[in-house]
Structures are given as structure tokens and as C-alpha cells.
Design a protein that fits this description.
Number of domains: 1
Strand order of the largest sheet: 1-2
Structural class: mainly alpha
Oligomer: single chain
């Protein structure tokens, strides 16, 4: 744990020194939120604006961006430039490397959520919940979402042949899932049921739905496919992906490209 914490501090310093990567990582979800919120300016369920609906959904998508994509690209880069090969020759356990990466995405995800909420509050009148139970829901959805997507990002990095191709490999499923998971197209009930059925196998749909349950009024649950927030199913699917993601990491992770 101590080595993992030290590795996490190093990862954070390296990440925030790459200013172009930092700006793109944090700015893209916020830019998409401003774009979507400006294009779809109507209301649903009386006085709840579409922009508020997009804000809650984009908070979930932002978590994926700073966990799945950041780690997929980062691990592929570490493998290509020889960082992983050098670390393998040190006494540092592989678990400490993973913990360092998890610390990086946890901090980055908190910052991303804060930025998206600031946009939602400042531009679209989103209100932070006053009920502690909603913040508890936020905590476990956020935690399971970050861990599951971070592990999947590490596993998916094995599919990238080089650091240059990694962004394309990671962004393809991420962008596709945003269309069928109720992020770009809201409310999710307007999507074909077959698309939503496919999205239901992956974390993004459940993270976005969990965040909508935190930042939207209770009556907005009727806009979900099941007509309820399905907290139990959300916890089950995200927890299962944590286990599956860990298994995929153990099977696919490699120290070098050779």
C-alpha cells in the first residue's frame, strides 16, 4: 500500500505536467455538455430542462473518460516507452503499479465531476442534492464506476499495438456506448430497446443512470427504461464488472510488446 501510494503521487505529478493531455481530458466532456445543453434546450416533466438531464448523464460519462480512456492510453504508453519493462526489474509489486494508476484516475475523476457540475450549476441551474442518502448513492456509484472502468482500461490497453493507436482503440467503444447508454440521446426511453439491451451489459449505462438518480428529482425515474432508478441492479452490474475487469487484467496484462 505504501509503495502504491508513492506510485500514485508520481503518476499524478506526471499526468498534470502534460498540460495538453490534461486540458483535453477534462475539457472534452465539459465541451460536449455545453454543446448538448445548448442544442437541446427544451423541458421534460414540467420544468426540468433537458440541459439538467444531460448534465447528470455527462457526469457518468466523465468518469469513464478519466478512468477507462486515461488508463488505456497511459498503460499502452508505459509499455511502449519501456517504463513497464524497467519497473518489472524493480522490487515494486505489480499490485502497487495498479494502485498508483487507480489513485491517478480517482483524483482525475473527482476533478472531472467537479468541473461538469460547475458547468451544470453555472449554466443550467442544476442543484446539488441536500439529502445525505443521495450523496451516499453518489459515493458508491462513483467508487464502483471508477474501479470497474479503470480495470477495463488496463485490460483494453493490451488491444493497442502502440501508444499512438491507443486513443483510437479506447475512444471507439466509449463514443459508441455514449449514444446507446442515454448520454448523448436523452431520455433513454426514446432509444430502441435492442440498443438499450446491448448497453445494459456495460458499465456506462448504469453509471449514467446512477448519477441521474443523484442529481435529478425522484419523478425523473419514469424516464428510465424500467421506470425506476434500479439501484440494486446498478450495484450488481458495476460490482460484476469490477470482478470481470480484474480477471481480464490478470489474463491480458503484459509488461512489454514482445
Amino acid at each position: 500500500m505504501a509503495v502504491g501510494a508513492a506510485r500514485g503521487r508520481l503518476e499524478l505529478r506526471e499526468f498534470f505536467r502534460r498540460k495538453d493531455a490534461v486540458v483535453f481530458t477534462f475539457a472534452l466532456p465539459a465541451f460536449l455538455l455545453v454543446l448538448l445543453g445548448s442544442v437541446f434546450s427544451g423541458t421534460v416533466l414540467g420544468d426540468m430542462s433537458m440541459s439538467q438531464l444531460f448534465t447528470a448523464s455527462m457526469v457518468g460519462a466523465g468518469i469513464i473518460s478519466t478512468s477507462f480512456i486515461t488508463l488505456g492510453v497511459g498503460v499502452a504508453g508505459d509499455r511502449e516507452d519501456g517504463t513497464l519493462k524497467r519497473l518489472r526489474g524493480t522490487p515494486m509489486p505489480v499490485a502497487a503499479y495498479f494502485l498508483g494508476k487507480l489513485a491517478l484516475v480517482a483524483v482525475a475523476s473527482v476533478a472531472e465531476v467537479a468541473l461538469l457540475l460547475a458547468v451544470g450549476i453555472g449554466l443550467y441551474g442544476v442543484e446539488l442534492p441536500a439529502d445525505p442518502a443521495r450523496w451516499l448513492t453518489f459515493a458508491w456509484v462513483f467508487g464502483l464506476g471508477v474501479v470497474s472502468c479503470a480495470l477495463l482500461g488496463i485490460a483494453a490497453s493490451a488491444a493497442a499495438k502502440s501508444a499512438r493507436s491507443a486513443p483510437a482503440v479506447m475512444n471507439l467503444p466509449y463514443i459508441g456506448l455514449q449514444f446507446i447508454s442515454g448520454v448523448f440521446i436523452n431520455p433513454i426511453v426514446v432509444l430502441p430497446s435492442a440498443m438499450v439491451a446491448v448497453a445494459s451489459f456495460f458499465p456506462l449505462k448504469w453509471i449514467a443512470q446512477g448519477m441521474r438518480s443523484v442529481f435529478l428529482p425522484d419523478e425523473a425515474a419514469v424516464l428510465e427504461m424500467a421506470g425506476t432508478w434500479e439501484h440494486g441492479m446498478t450495484a450488481l452490474v458495476l460490482g460484476a464488472w469490477c470482478v470481470v475487469g480484474l480477471g481480464l487484467c490478470l489474463v491480458t496484462f503484459r509488461w512489454t510488446d514482445e
